[in-house]
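pls design
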C-alpha cells in the first residue's frame, strides 16, 4: 500500500502549492513510489545528510531501478509503474 503524502508535514505546503489536480496526483504518486522503494517516508527524506550525498544516492538508485523495470514491464492496469527491488 502506498503512503499518502498529504499526511506528512513535509509535503503539506508543497502539495498546496500545486494548482492542477492531475499534477498533484502525479507528484503524490511518484513521491509515494520513491518512498516505498526506499522504505522511508517524506519526513525521513528531509532528515538525510545531504552533505554526504545520501539523497543523491537514493535518487540515482531509484532511477536505475526504473530503467531496469521499464525494460521488463510496462504499466499496470492502473497506469502505475511497479517498483521492484533487485
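designed seq:
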Amino acid at each position: 500500500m502506498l503512503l499518502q503524502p498529504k499526511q506528512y508535514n513535509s509535503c503539506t505546503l508543497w502539495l498546496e502549492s500545486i494548482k492542477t489536480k492531475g499534477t498533484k496526483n502525479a507528484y503524490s504518486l511518484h513521491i509515494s513510489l520513491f518512498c516505498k522503494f526506499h522504505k522511508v517516508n517524506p519526513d525521513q527524506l528531509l532528515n538525510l545528510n545531504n552533505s554526504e550525498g545520501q539523497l543523491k544516492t537514493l535518487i540515482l538508485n531509484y532511477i536505475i531501478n526504473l530503467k531496469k523495470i521499464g525494460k521488463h514491464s510496462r504499466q499496470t492496469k492502473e497506469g502505475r509503474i511497479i517498483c521492484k527491488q533487485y
